[in-house]
Amino acid sequence: MTVFFSRQKWQEAYEKAGFYRTETNTIEYWDKVAETDGGSLSGKKHIECIKDYLIARKLIGAHSTVLDIGCGLGEYVREFADICGHVTALDYSEKMLSVCKERCKTAGIDNVSYILADFMEYDFTEKYDCIIACLNPATYQPDAFDKMLALSAGPVIYFSMDTPIDGPDTEPVYCGCNSVRYAEEYLKEEGIYYRKIPYSYEHIMDDGKIRNIDFAYLVAIKDENMDDVTLAHRFSNNHMTALKKDKICGCFYCTGIFSPDEIEDWLIDDNDCDRYGTAICPYCGIDSVIGESSGFPITKEFLNRMKDRWF
Question: Whole-structure pTM over 0.90, yes or no?
Fold first, then answer.
């Protein structure tokens, strides 16, 4: 296997951190964290952020199977069990998994199964439609990302701090290996499609002051059949909030290019496709609009390619 620079540097940072050799990488440590109700960010805003993103782009749905690696107390498990077909919760801390299971039971959630195991050591026998790894030290290395990509038939959701990977501002405990920037460079080098969703977390310090900490989600999809025209289509619905912030958008039916301010009609319905508002083209009346926030070019050439595919 070819050893890429980014992969090698990421592995070196992981080895240098050496946290897997410390007490913070023991089952006993995480059992104690479970007893203090810790180990995750407070609130649900960061989870709602990625849920809305995935739903709007049809990356998950009512029949999706999800694997949550290092599920902890089960915040993501409960949220995703509410919108997906089945969630598998994996953790190597028995107490973490026990709390997760009890909270799912209290919430009346019955579409979750549980695996007590170390992710890197467990021998999986199936793929999942979506894999989640959020603030999980076991996945701060390229080998773990390889395994996640191999196990997923759809997106891999990776959430961690968005911090420098070199220089004086490098996070000292993990030597930067926990930064999404290593994973981002690795994905670029491997040629794997991904999108980055920044998230700023307000943390209340011991002195009462608020500190904004930069995090980010990476949504990676390793699918050779998922070309840019197919991926762009995922941005053509549930996009009202994003479109209203864009300066330009286009329709891949009539291939018109215009300002989102010209959109007067929105399709809003109680279904996964249109719950958050889907634009109706002001020129042809078809719900086939994408905006610049999709990350794809809003040009006649690209819109015509989309038209050839979808109409």
Answer: no
